[in-house]
Automatic annotation (TrEMBL):
Belongs to the myo-inositol 1-phosphate synthase family. InterPro entries: Myo-inos-1-P_Synthase, Myo-inos-1-P_Synthase_GAPDH, NAD(P)-bd_dom_sf. One of its GO terms (molecular function) is inositol-3-phosphate synthase activity. It holds the Pfam family NAD_binding_5. Residues 207-311 form the Myo-inositol-1-phosphate synthase GAPDH-like domain. GO terms for biological process: inositol biosynthetic process; phospholipid biosynthetic process. PANTHER family: MYO-INOSITOL-1 PHOSPHATE SYNTHASE (PTHR11510). This is Myo-inositol-1-phosphate synthase. Gene3D superfamilies: Dihydrodipicolinate Reductase, domain 2 (3.30.360.10), NAD(P)-binding Rossmann-like Domain (3.40.50.720).
Length: 386
């Protein structure tokens, strides 16, 4: 594949474009591009990716779908008032927020919408194609950062799958940063297979599960027997409200449990509980209680507490994923991007579950992308497309 033009612009189409995460993504990208803040938390700004041909942050153009109508500048002011964004940042990047807001289109399906799935998919795909044409983009990546939805019941496509199908119909790579169904719906399997597009997901690994991906391998490598692993999450904001639904919480917890099963080789006793605490706003607290046996059966306990701002943890990863997936598309990769498992609780494709091994896979992708425009011109070998 030819190398991108130096002046090429790349679209990032956000599903849930007026939410806290999306607003932080747009404001954060503008702040880093303008030199107002360093790119703290962005893996793609580390030296290992310096020559991998990733699109520059300054080349990213934002748009998206949402079902709410609160303008991004107003949402950014609310986030600044809550301490999520730095004071003064919304006014400093007001032009960029307004520009992104102009590219947001109504999502759905809204109450009373009588359109069938095919009509909704066609409408969403048309919005994305129009965005690419209107903004003169070389390509665009669709990223789902909307609130978690319950697992679907029956054959009807949930909203996340409608958006995912629209992305592929528009010829765009797709990233599912949520635990929602997205491309995982069985009805979309033929479309996924025939599209020839790269995709990644699912459910961004930003806090509790990030720790689990480190601690699980530690116990296994030190031959310590984990008897029980229980956890509690306290969170507010939109996620807290969405995850108050037991079905949505179950979808969220599936990825957390998978990490333990994959790293420990067994599923210990214990569950993860998610509590909606509106007073916490965009902050979350995750507590884990791990009971394990040492030499001669000595019983011991490890407890961890993670307190963080969900949007600030997620936003740099969304930017990383948009850049990596856009570059993978430009370089000719297709199918599940298993090397991006580093970013997810429940990653697509085949890959390791421990964070250190996932990081090694990610740096391997960086090398392949760096070599993609050399002799041979492809960024992956036979195992890259699955």
């Amino acid at each position: 594949m030819p190398e991108s033009r130096p002046d090429a612009r790349v679209g990032v189409w956000l599903v849930g474009a007026r939410g806290s995460v999306a607003t932080t993504v747009v404001a954060g990208c503008a702040a880093v591009t303008a030199g107002l803040h360093p790119p703290t938390g962005m893996v793609t700004e580390s030296p290992v990716f310096a020559d991998s041909g990733l699109p520059a942050l300054s080349s990213l153009v934002f748009g998206g779908h949402d079902t709410v109508d609160c303008p991004l500048p107003k949402r950014a002011e609310a986030l600044a008032a809550g301490g999520v964004l730095p004071p003064g940042l919304p006014s400093a990047v007001a032009a960029e927020l307004a520009a992104a807001d102009r590219e947001i289109r109504p999502g759905g399906p809204a109450a009373g919408d009588t359109r069938v799935d095919a009509e909704l998919i066609a409408a969403f795909a048309s919005d994305i194609r129009d965005f690419i044409t209107r903004c003169g983009l070389e390509r665009a990546v669709v990223v789902n950062v909307a609130s978690t939805e319950p697992a679907p019941v029956g054959s009807a496509l949930p909203a996340s799958s409608l958006y995912a199908a629209a992305a592929l119909h528009a010829g765009c790579p797709y990233v599912n940063f949520t635990p929602s169904t997205g491309l995982h719906h069985p009805a979309l399997a033929p479309l996924v297979e025939s599209s020839g597009l790269p995709y990644a997901g699912r459910d961004g690994k930003t806090g509790q599960t990030l720790l689990r991906a480190v601690l699980g391998p530690m116990f296994a490598q030190r031959a310590l027997t984990v008897r029980a692993w229980s956890g509690t999450n306290l969170l507010g904001g939109g996620d807290g409200a969405a995850l108050a639904d037991p079905a949505a919480a179950a979808a969220k917890n599936a990825g957390k449990e998978r990490v333990l099963a994959d790293t420990l080789g067994t599923v210990p006793e214990g569950e993860v509980h998610i509590d909606d605490v509106p007073a916490l706003g965009d902050w979350k607290t995750a507590w884990d209680h791990i009971a394990f046996d040492g030499f001669l059966g000595t019983r011991m306990i490890l407890q961890t507490i993670w307190q963080g701002c969900d949007s600030s943890l997620a936003a740099p990863l969304v930017l990383d994923l948009a850049r990596l997936t856009a570059r993978a598309h430009q370089a000719g990769l297709s199918g599940p991007l298993a090397e991006l498992g580093f970013f997810f609780k429940d990653p697509v494709g085949e890959g390791p579950a421990g964070l250190a091994e996932q990081y090694a896979e990610l740096t391997g992708l960086a090398r392949r992308l760096r070599d993609a425009d050399g002799p041979g011109g492809r960024a992956h070998d036979s195992e890259g497309a699955q």
